[in-house]
Amino acid sequence: MPYYSQPEKIPTLLEALNHQTVDQLKALAQLLPGGKIPTRKAELVSHVMERMQVKSLRSPRCRKIR
User: 41-52 vs 22-31: helix axis angle to the nearest 10?
Assistant: First the structure.
């Protein structure tokens, strides 16, 4: 039996973030624009979710070339 079960399908961003460890969430939060990074897991999940849903967060491929 495996140490933990890996979900076959993750339907939402919230569920995906909740499967991450605090260290993984901190590393992800450092890559996103924003202020101070929280230390508690629930706060980290909220912080990352909010930052990933910001309209200014775009892929480099989506930027217009002038």
Answer: 30
- Please give the tally of structural domains in the chain: 1
Q: How far apart are CA 51 and CA 3, in angstroms?
A: 31
Over residues 37-54, the pLDDT tens digits come to 999 999 999 999 999 887
Question: 14 — phi, psi (to 5°)?
Answer: -60, -45
For residues 18 and 13, give the distance between their C-alpha atoms in angstroms, rounded to a whole number: 9
Whether 7 is in a domain gets the answer no
7-15: which pairs have CB atoms within 8 A and are 24 or more residues apart? 13/49, 13/52, 14/45, 14/49
Write down the pTM of the prediction: 0.69
- Residue 32 maps to a domain: yes
